[in-house]
Amino acid sequence: ISETMSTNEENKLPLNGRRAIPPNYSNDEENEVPEMEAFGVIPRGFNPRDYLRVVDIYMFKDPHEINKQEHHTDKYYNPRLIVRRGQAFQIQIDFNRPYKPQSDQFWLEFLMGRYPQQNKGTYIPVQVGNALKPGQWGAKIIHRENNSIRLSIMSSSTCIIGKFRLYVAVLTPFGILRTQRNSATDTYILFNPWCQLDAVYLDDEKEKQEYVLNDVGVLFHGNVEDVKSRSWSYGQFEENVLDACLFLMDKAELELSGRGNPIKICRVASAVINSRDDDGVIVGSWNNVYDYGVAPSAWTGSVDILLEYYSSKQPVRYGQCWVFAGVLNTFLRCLGIPARLITNYSSAHDNNANLRLDLFLDDEGKVDSKLTKDSVWNYHCWNEAWMTRPDLPVGFGGWQVVDATPQETSDGMYRCGPSSVQAIKHGHVCFQFDAPFVYAEVNGDVFYTRIEKNGTQVVESVDTARIGQLIVTKEVGGDGMMDITEEYKFREGSDEERLALETAVMYGVKKQSVQDTTYQPQTDVDMDFQAQKAALGNDFKVTITFRNKSRNSYTATTYLLGNIVFYTGVPKREFKKHSFSAKLEPSSSSSFDIVIKSSEYMSDVLEQASFHFFVTARINETGKILAVQKAVVLEIPTLRIKTKGALVAGKEASVIVEFTNPLKQTLENVTLRLEGPGVLRTIKKQFGRIPMNSTLTWEVKFTPMRPGLRRLIASLNSDALRHVYGELNVQIQKP
Q1: How many H helices and E strands in the chain?
Q2: 697 to each of 269, 689, 690, 716, how far by Cα in Å?
Q3: What confidence score (pLDDT) does residue 6 get?
Q4: More confident residue, 18 or 189
Q5: Is 250 a catalytic residue?
């Protein structure tokens, strides 16, 4: 019987000539894992009971226990362990006898799906070592007692997210012994906005509380003259919601190996939340007929919708934009991607993304509804998800538009995003995904075009201020409205706004003005941007240089915009705006210096002191635009570490950490950390404040454990200054 079983199983697999294994996109399916994996012929006298054997595994998975507390997952109504990637968690293993590190060898195995493979991240063997490396898989023993050991396990900060099965494997001379399949030890791994190495890292604690951990929200609707609001329950921690969200990725057929990438997850989620072309979660209906379903306005939250879909596997009826956005927000927050729901008032639904909404009038001036294909929505809801964009140039990380409402197809499916808000603001719509469509939603012009009896079109009026008049989201920590229009666009009528539009046109957004012009770049003027090397806390100079290669005199209206950014290129805030008119003499170069004062950036400077500058200049005589962008990083001071006396294993010694505050301000809430693998356990010390120019000295007594070359690592953290490090290699002598 077993033979026919296996051949049947083989026949079902949808193999083809290109793949060695079938596509692997179910988190739910499992493979058989052998409890005894023999290396060859097993001798007759072999008894697995003679070897180290796992009796029990304790996961510390209750909400009040260390793992869920430290990983901010204590709110999930789920009995299993839930941790966030790139951050250590603990488990305890009870063996049948005390563990002997010299002779016993065991490791952990995390598996996902039906075809676990190490190079796909779906089979993860974790060896036990003596130190954990940040953001990399590893385990170390932190406590041994009787037959038990306690392990600290670090997951990779790029690990795929979902539900893993855990096995403990013990090496014997004749084969590998594994624990039995035990669903109680299943471990969910999620995105980690608290981990600096994670692509979704968000630095502000209040924003994390709001955009990841808040399970209710406020939707803004109505119209721009009459804004209305209502609450929505996201419910991302409710029972079975996490499993439902993982099921959505299975349904969308996202390969398991792609599930560590928030860009991919957002892209497939924006498609699978709507039912068009993939039998996704919600059926959209805008025609006021809601037979055999629930009217979109009747839903109060996402949980019912997600759980109904999870159990029935059939699209749920019905939704409109805020329902798609509400459910997508639940999905993103549940998996640990910071997310918020956005309302754009007077949202353009522009069928051909030409930034021109044509409202056709008949000969008498009435709107002709048969001819008019474009529409202006009173409001439209979408989502923003927070992440880095390593696939785009620096400066385009941060909030990304993701829209699950089925409006237009993108790469053949109804989906939209992720699209960088920063790129939309500056008109850089060449960057994936779907930026021209979103740009048009917030930036179109309304053309009122009259069609005469003989068919000629006469533009009667153009309204440039109508579209995207107000863009809002719920405020952090309250139920009020936060106006974020300026995240998406420059002030209506400002020069920067016109410049962003011209940039968008240059990158292929079709903009039909009354006189159509074709794009020809300005080739006879070059513009360059340089920044002076400087230390954090000092003023520094940036220089814009024009080279006019022509025989004409030009004037250039020039704009400099400076953003404080995370080291990942995600902007935190705009801190410098400067505009000037530059006179460009024929056949000559002209340089213009702009001083960036420390007082302009110090209040908001980020730990890695990175800035991103955009410079755009319009040659007034030709209307052509020059653009350049540059990232600038300032020098950050370091810690000095020195040791006192001889360093001998087993003998007490001293290490001294020194730091001089170079800033023109007192550092508050200073915390120092010092550690050295194999030398000393992490020691933390808090100092109230360090006045400007004063030096802090911290002496630590320690006893090095093992001889050899070791490294001491120290860091300093304070309110105004972070990312301050020092290190010292030390040679520990034999006693």
Answers
A1: 12, 40
A2: 52, 13, 11, 12
A3: 36
A4: 189
A5: no
Please say whether the structural domain 525-633 has been given the CATH code 2.60.40.10: yes
Q: Residue 699: how many CB atoms within 10 A of its CB?
A: 10
Backbone angles phi, psi at 134, to 5 degrees: -60, 135
pLDDT of residue 9: 39
Q: Is the per-residue pLDDT at 299 higher than 90? A: no
CB within 8 A of 605, min separation 6: which ones?
A: 536, 564, 634, 720
One DSSP character per residue, 177-215 reads EEPPP-GGG-EEEE--TT-TTSTT----HHHHHHHTT--
pLDDT confidence band for 520 (50 / 70 / 90): low
Using CA of residue 290, residue 296, residue 300, residue 306, what is the dihedral sign? positive
Check residues 273 and 215 and name the one with the higher pLDDT: 273
- Determine which of 134-143, 513-522, 587-596, 630-639 has the lowest per-residue pLDDT on average: 513-522
Selecting among 198, 215, 374, 403, the annotated active-site residue is 403
255 is in an annotated binding site: no
Confidence tier at 65 by pLDDT (50, 70, 90): very high
From the candidates 321, 334, 381, 416, give the one annotated as an active-site residue: 321
Whether residue 445 is annotated as binding a ligand: the answer is yes
Positions of CATH 2.60.40.10 in the chain: 36-190, 525-633, 640-732
Report the distance separating Cα 381 and Cα 323, nearest Å.
9
The total of other beta-carbon atoms located within 10 Å of residue 669's CB is: 12
Q: Hey, what CATH topology would domain 640-732 get?
A: Immunoglobulin-like (2.60.40)
Angle at 163 between CA 158 and CA 164, to 5 degrees: 80
Does the annotation list 463 as a binding residue?
Answer: no
Write out the residue limits of the CATH 3.90.260.10 domain(s) in the chain.
Answer: 214-507
The H or E element spanning position 487 is: helix 485-488
Alpha carbon distances (Å) from 386 to 200, 477, 557, 572? 6, 18, 34, 12
539 is catalytic: no
Task: Decide: residue 478, CB within 10 A, 0-12 exposed, 13-18 middle, 19+ buried.
Answer: exposed
Statement: residue 296 has pLDDT above 50: yes
- Say whether pLDDT at 514 is over 50: no
Give the model's pLDDT for residue 513: 52
Dist CA 580 CA 544 (whole Å): 11
Burial of 308 (0-12, 13-18, 19+ CB in 10 A): middle
* Residue 380 falls in the annotated catalytic set: yes
- Which has the higher per-residue pLDDT, 350 or 349? 349
Main-chain phi, psi angles of 704, to 5 degrees = -60, 140
475 belongs to an annotated ligand binding site = no
**Residue whose entry in the numeric block shows the structure tokens 């290490």:** 655
pLDDT of residue 457: 81
Phi and psi at residue 490, in whole multiples of 5°?
-75, 165
Cα–Cα distance measured from residue 672 to residue 468, given in angstroms and rounded to the nearest whole number = 47
Instruction: Give the pLDDT of residue 10.
Output: 39
Q: Provide the phi-psi class of 667: left if phi over 0, else alpha when psi is between -120 and 50, else beta.
A: beta
Nearest to 231, CA basis, from 300, 325, 297:
300
User: 380, 426, 428, 612: which is the annotated catalytic residue?
Assistant: 380
Does the domain at 214-507 match CATH 3.90.260.10? Answer given as: yes
pLDDT of residue 244 exceeding 60? yes
- 36-190 in CATH: which number? 2.60.40.10
